Amino acid sequence: MRKTFSRPISLKQTRLRYCPGCGHSIIHRLIAEVIDEFDIRERVIGVAPVGCAVFAYDYFNFDMIEVAHGRSPAAATAMKRVLPNSVVYSYQGDGDLAAIGTSEIIHAANRGENISVFFVNNATYGMTGGQMAPTTLSTQRTTTTPHGRDVTLNGHPLRVAELLASIEGVSYLSRCSVDSYVNIIKTKQMIRRAFEYQLNNKGFSFVEILSPCPTDWGLTPADSIEWLRSDMITFYKLGVLKDRWKDGS
Which residue positions in the chain have pLDDT lower than 70? Predict the structure, then answer.
């Protein structure tokens, strides 16, 4: 009998304790699979902040460092500069990267740091109770916007990928989703591309990943996927925004 499925070596033999229907477990596996395929596990350093990814060191089977809220790009920068042969990535949520960590990600991108950033966008503060995040849609109800986001009071949803696309230091930039098999495969390809940039010293790479949060959206896992498709993907368009290596620049 041929074995067709096994746990990646880069994932520990432990159960992921995310909520049913959460996309984090899928994304963890994709990152682990890519690391195994590149055979770089002994060189990898992952950086995770406060948020739903705060227990990442329980799941990834390589060096992980936990840092203060929003500070992952700064810590990743330090790790990569001190240990240039390491492969360093940050794993951040929207409440982290797009709020308290906005300045960190913008300046790391502007400097063109040779790190990879995986940005999980579920349009809410997932760990602290489902409050409005910078990425919350204008029609979206949260615990702090029960009637939907009021853009005249709270501003518009922040399109982080488009914001970073204008920065010269960014070499690779894409947005994907884990709502379907096809998009999961594309997400893995984009994660792989981000690591390829770093491994070839091509500069700053960034992948935004749209992910469901059924618990804080107040939906079933199946309905959360449908809402992600009908609302989030409509606003946050999927695709590659910048690929300088491919473009020859």
Answer: 1, 3, 130, 249
Q: Tokens at residue 126, please?
A: 């997932």
Identity (one letter) of the amino acid at 127? M
C-alpha span between 94 and 106 (Å, rounded):
14
Amino acid at 134: P
Whole-number pLDDT of residue 157: 94
Domain ranges of the chain: 45-243
Task: Give the Cα separation of 189 and 165 in Å (integer).
Answer: 19
Q: What does the block give as tokens for 189? A: 């390809």
What pTM value is reported for the model?
Answer: 0.95
Beta bridge pairs of residue 174: 207, 240
- Could you name the CATH architecture of 45-243? 3-Layer(aba) Sandwich (3.40)
Phi/psi at 152 (5° precision): -75, -25
